[in-house]
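Suppose a classmate hands you a notebook page containing two proteins, each written out with its sequence and a corresponding row of structure tokens. How would you begin to make sense of it? This section walks through that situation. The first entry is reproduced here exactly as it would appear on such a page.
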Amino acid sequence: MTTASTPADVVRAEPARTTDGAPRTGASLGYLRHAAGKLGGALVSLFAVLVTSFFLFRIIPGDPVKAMTHGIPTSAEQLATLRRQFGLDLPLWQQFADYCAKALTGDLGTSFQFRAPVGDLIAEKLPATLLLTGIAVVIYSALGLWLGTRSAWRHGGLGDRLNTGIALTLWSVPSFWLGLLLIIVFSVGIGPVPGLFPTGGMESGTGETGLAYVLDVAHHLVLPV
């Protein structure tokens, strides 16, 4: 036996609404809390990276200024000039504040190994990194979506068991070992079987253009992807 709801019950059952008439639910607040948690975690991780990278090189034994001279005889005045130039004569807290400010504004300093701004070195390699990462994301997203859909559609079938077994096997294999194995098999070659794919560079550098250049770049991307 059922009872009819009174108008008061209906009013109480209706969700709270915003000023524009849209229902207000806890889902939107949950999304906001989730996003805030992710943002907070990212900020904490960024701060931890800054602290670690700053203090790690200051607890290592040795004088960083003398290391910059590469063993070249340098006077005390020249060493003091280098310390002032790189701000190493400032209090530690001020050095850390300057380090954070420069890092957050993209001023990463100069590489002593390559004698060039770190930002320029990153910008030089960034296009290849984005190309490699983008292609890898597209491939594994499409493949994962297709295999996951087939496994869910035929749950418990042969394909589902094979996909699960292969995925667990690849997940448990160390990535560096799998990478070395792929290099040995497909780049170095085994016995009379020659290597098929290069392991270095983005192109052959033989002056290809058009479709030939695209295929050459794709050939170099096979093993890294």
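The notebook's second entry, a different protein, reads as follows.
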Amino acid sequence: GISAAIFALWIPLEFRNPRPLVDLRVSMRRPVLMTNVTSILMGFAMYANMLATFILLEMPSTTGYGHELTSLQAGLVMIPTSLTMVVLAPVSARITRIFSAKITLIAGAGLMGFGYVSRIFFHDTVLLIAIAAVIVAAGTAIAFAAMPLLIMGAVPDTETAAANGLNTLLRSIGSSVSSAAIAGVLAVMVVEIGGKNLPTLQAFQVIFAIAAAASIIGAFIATAIPKPLHNELEPIDPGLVEKLKELHEENR
């Protein structure tokens, strides 16, 4: 409640300030706004992959679907997921260079959606869970690498730090909402086994379905991002510099 009140007071102050800490007018531009909305959904979907997978792997075998791994074993299973996010960063740059950051974001979000849909049905073995988690991580790496480029291509040079900071914050908000949503689903959809309330398999399927929906919706929203005037990873044609400056001034 206090945070919401502070946020409500902060917004009009930023609009009235001639030199705001975060220029919200810039953030309301269509490319920035669409990227930020997508970022919230991507943050939500990303965190669901990490948190739900750990819990699923550690579920006792008495549930009928659990694999009863220890925390250490579950962590080892998730190593390929973490490595995938590191290794695929250059791939994201290559896709952006060939196409654009917009296409990269759409492709990453779509891959995340595909990975989550597969997770709804394929969870019988640890290997299947690990492969599906890697697919989601691959999409995450590709999508996350594109968002800063989209932001920087849509704001003046003086606003890049603040705009990217806001984008990162919104991703974190998405992750926080994801954590709360997962906890809520796992707390509600339970079955009593051995005197303990444990999440049902359907609880995890609901989580993956929600994450898939977030990813797919994010991909559709990303299609509304205007086509860039130049490739974000290529040198800007000097002839476009003045045109870009004029566009920024018109949108202020």
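A careful reader of the second entry would note: The radius of gyration is 21 Å.
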